[in-house]
Amino acid sequence: MSVSPRFILCAIVAVFLSACGGGKAPPPVQTAEGPKPAAVVEDTRPVVVAFGDSLSAGYGLEPGKSFPDDVQRLIDGAKLSWQVVNMGVSGDTTTDGVVRLATVLAVNPKIVIVEFGGNDGLRGLPVTTTEKNLAEIIEAIQKSGAKVVIAGMSLPRNYGPEYIQSFEKVYQSLAKRYKATLIPFLLDGVGGNPALMQADGIHPTAEGAEIVARTVMQYLKPLL
Q: At 105, which CATH number?
């Protein structure tokens, strides 16, 4: 009996399918799992915010050399469990500070170092405007439940004694009114010293910032 070529082809296909598991899909390939991403550890330490202008921001300094960075190192060295968040923006006036209030309060700070007014004074803005804005900032922070540390400022002597005195009194008056901690002069021991100030005579060098941090820490530590 002769066998047709078609029959032979069908037989070959049947044998092939049987060898391959009857046409079933092959089992999935097992691959080794890659390394799992490290878990993100949330920083639960209470927050101190340095809220101000270029002095807080560390204008002209290398990253990590601003006075808030130095305050963090002092806090760590004292074995205190607090984190310092730097919210300084170069060029900000007290008006800009009012605008940025919501951003600061959003991090739920326990203490806020209010460092504003220098740019107001350098621009010759009315002292009444500076006082009004600082009062608004302080009130909002205290209303949130946080404590306020006011960084007092002064101005170059060429601004005249009358304007300088009225400017300096703003900080003293606000500290008394709101029962807030006052740093009488943030740049104490630094301002006016060419060895500790940058060429502009306004911003401290890295060494000067370390001295500023130690000044801040004197008034901040009792609150921590």
A: 3.40.50.1110
Given the residues 53, 54, 70, 154, the one annotated as active site: 54
| Catalytic, out of 2, 4, 43, 200 | 200
Q: Is 81 within the bounds of a domain?
A: yes
The number of angstroms, rounded, from the C-alpha of 58 to the middle of its chain's C-alpha atoms is 12
3-state secondary structure of 48: strand
Integer Rg of the chain from CA: 33
Cβ–Cβ under 8 Å, residues 186 and 155: no
The verdict on residue 31 lying in a domain is no
Active site residue 54: yes
- Catalytic-residue membership of 203: yes
pLDDT digits (tens, 9 = 90+) for 34-69: 556 656 667 899 999 999 999 999 999 999 999 999
Its domain, for residue 188, covers: 47-223
